[in-house]
Amino acid sequence: MTTLINPADGRTIGDVPDTAAEDVAGAVQTAREAFEQWRDATPGERARVLLRLADLVEGDADELTRLEVEETGKPAAVFRDGELPFAIDNLRFFAGAARSLEGTGAGVLSKGYTSVLVRRPIGVVGSISPWNFPFIMAVWKAGPALAAGNAVVIKPAPRTPRTTLRLAELFTAAGAPDGLLQVVTGGADVGQALVTDPGVDMVSVTGSTETGRAVMRGAVDGLKRVHLELGGKAPALVFEDAALEDMAAGVVMGATYNTGQDCTAATRVYIDRSRYGEAVEALRDALSRVRPGDPWDEGADIGPLISAAHRDRVHGFVSRASGRIVWGGTPIDGPGFYYSPTLIADADQSSEIVQSEIFGPVLVAVPFDGEDEAVRLANDTPYGLASSVWSADVSRALRVSHRLDVGVTWVNDHLPIASEAPHGGVKGSGFGKDMSQEAVQEYSVTRHLMIKHAAPQARDSFRPA
Ligand code: NAD
């Protein structure tokens, strides 16, 4: 049993039973039976169910908002007017993508034979999601896998299971075969039971880099496909010709959105030394305008951190930090697990505050001398998910972005995403893409059918055509 706590006031919301590890196998078996039907559904049939699901989610906005806000403490307006419509757009995109899977081309690739390339689903996908964007992550995990014709057994994070459970109910109501999207609840043990279950053909996880390693290890014996969306420590590079006010507004939004509990959050801001003092001041001013508040207060920009333990962890990083605290740096008195938006200047590149994922509203500033050093510092962490470049010179912005080892670079902004664009990282941020046509393709395999259409002739099978 997991007791759910509202991070905005520390009160108990209710209990959710944990799935017993041995019951995970039953969920996988049910999903496999549903897969037998779904696998043979046409792309159009799959798309219609996903489109109906999107409509049902839209109609359920109030309930989904209540559940998500109670569990995460994020501002209701941010979820209702931003994340939820975005998740609905994702579902509609996946519905369309189901109908345009590449790899169905046919041709005469070898004389006398017609080749047909067929995309097939993989089978049962075991998905594991984090607590920072519970509903969107459930959609990103389940949506492309279902669009490609798979069944999904998903395990949400233990503190935030209810919008995922609701999504599964709505999916059945939308006309999906019973049990096609199963939810198992609990922590790492249930996650490992899912990853190692012999009936699971592929595992997909969004979580910390350490969890990614554990999931990959669990998938080794079964030689399962793995899809890993892991941690991040995004740099923002500010050149001397950047519009500093716009930069400060954008970087601070990038650093504090979802109280910094975002894998793509702007966390390290590297600033050309000639404008370092000015830029730090602009960042401090922008940070001082960010309003933590009750999630139901329409004026609140950010909510609390997810738990008391996580707040202590964030504060631990700040207390041990190199450099000087320019703004914030303290927990905010309860109720709730609030933390002040924080700016630390002159941090040492090799120190923990610069190298480790903090997952809180904490930004560090470091000066650089020249483009080469900016790129070197930006690439100098174990992660490679997101980044931004701030400059009025489009050639420089492009030149620099090509040298960054990351999955995404924004120019003169930080955070926006689109259903059509792949999301995922490199290095310690994992591999595999969420969203976009690429995500749907990753949940499928290509098969080659080679059909003889001409009279037999003597030939060597391996001779180039
Ligand atoms: P976490 O790694 O603690 O947990 C993620 C999920 O994995 C949870 O459901 C958890 O129960 C499960 N889990 C944990 N250990 C496991 C194990 N050994 N085996 C199987 N399952 C296990 O992460 P979190 O604290 O819930 O989320 C924050 C992390 O997620 C951050 O590192 C963040 O950067 C990352 N994240 C990445 C992306 C991305 O797209 N790259 C998006 C959102 C969050």
From TrEMBL:
Aldehyde dehydrogenase domain residues are 4-448
Arranged from A to Z, the UniProt key words for this protein are: Oxidoreductase
Q: Where is the active site?
A: E229
Pfam families the record matches = Aldedh
User: InterPro entries per the record?
Assistant: Ald_DH/histidinol_DH (IPR016161), Ald_DH_C (IPR016163), Ald_DH_CS_GLU (IPR029510), Ald_DH_N (IPR016162), Aldehyde_DH_dom (IPR015590)
Q: Name one GO molecular function term.
A: oxidoreductase activity, acting on the aldehyde or oxo group of donors, NAD or NADP as acceptor
Q: What family classification does the UniProt entry report for this protein?
A: Belongs to the aldehyde dehydrogenase family.
The protein here is known as Gamma-aminobutyraldehyde dehydrogenase
